Amino acid sequence: MRIHRSARVSAALAALLLPALGGCSGAADDGTLEIAVVPKGTTNEYWKALHAGAEAAAQELGVRIVWKGPLQENDREAQQKVVEDLVVRGVDGLVLVPLDSKALVPPVKEADGRGIPVVVADSDLEWDGRASYVATDNRRGGELAAEALADMLGGMGKILVLRHMEGSASTHAREEGFLAKIAESSGIEVLSSNQYAGPQPEGAYQAAENLLNSFAEVDGVFCPSEPSVFGMLRALQDAGRADGLHFVGFDSNDKLVEALREGEIDALVLQSPVRMGELAVRACVEAARGGTPDEVIDTGVTVVRSAEVDDPAVQALLRPDLSILGQ
């Protein structure tokens, strides 16, 4: 298996600083390749960053992007319908970020049967027909989070893990990587690791509040997704416990960055969604043009602590440039 590994995060950061170019999409009636990109949702900042990378790659390569996905990150049926419609439309390639590792298999098999190459990004499918898999090494990201939290705790303490959502392959890998690595610290006790936040901040807040009400003595917390981190942050703030424990999360938004700067979050594990979108579209175009992209493309992952939040390279990850989307 050929595996493309991005250089360390410093090299990946350079690819994030993409020029601001105007975007376009629509039916490719002039012979231009049309690549559909289907995210898990369309409102989260993470998906907007992935969209920016996809658009930049498309414009450089002279192809068109169709960006379409469900509004909510738990609407499997809506995402499946989007994929089915795009297959019928006859796009030239499909970049898919699946909400569920199994539910999207039937429509992508249909795409494959029609000669439409499928590149899977961010979260994998239980299907071996994809042209390429472009993603963070999510298990490694979970391991890095565990190493950071164990270091903060000095190898001793009681912790909570608030999971993301059942069926999400990417966050499941983060959770399992975290739990496997934290188990190596015999002085750390995991009080709870079977509760799910869900894809929306409101549900995540309620789940986090329930956990904090159940456990009075907590030294550390890990949350594997932006909604779970945000929900836990709000619950800790409302309970007056934001400064009383160590908190490691995954992904970012403006409020999480501010909490990181203020020390209410001790560290965030960061991906490169702009780079992921760029490389996924590149792989899909290569496949659509008859080439063979790398089977696995690792887009990089790093841990950023509070003291590093204002580093310019870190800011490129925390606040990606979305100007290509007119934002």
Strand content: 15-25%
Average predicted local confidence, pLDDT = 90
Helix content: 40-55%
Query: Sheet with the most strands?
Result: 7 strands, parallel
Q: Which architecture of the largest domain would the CATH scheme give at its second level? A: 3-Layer(aba) Sandwich
SS-based structural class? alpha/beta
Outline the structure in words.
By secondary structure, the protein is α/β, with parallel strands linked by helices. The chain has 2 domains: 3-136 and 272-299, 3-Layer(aba) Sandwich (Rossmann fold); 138-270, Response regulator (Rossmann fold), CATH 3.40.50.2300. The protein is 42% helix and 18% strand. The chain has 11 helices and 13 strands. Strands 1-12-6-5-4-2-3 form a 7-stranded parallel sheet, with helices on both faces. Strand 4, helix 4 and strand 5 form a beta-alpha-beta unit. The protein starts with a strand and ends in a 9-residue tail after the last helix. Residues 1-28 have low confidence and may be disordered.
In short:
The chain has 327 residues and is an alpha/beta fold.
Q: What's the structural blueprint in terms of helices and strands?
A:
Layout: E1 3-5, H1 9-16, E2 34-38, H2 45-61, E3 64-67, H3 76-89, E4 93-96, H4 105-113, E5 118-121, E6 132-135, H5 138-153, E7 157-163, H6 169-182, E8 188-196, H7 201-214, E9 220-222, H8 226-238, E10 246-250, H9 254-262, E11 267-270, H10 273-288, E12 296-298, E13 302-305, H11 312-318
Parallel strand pairs: 1-12, 2-3, 2-4, 4-5, 5-6, 6-12, 7-8, 7-9, 9-10, 10-11
Antiparallel strand pairs: 11-13
Helix pairs in contact: 2-10, 3-4, 5-6, 7-8
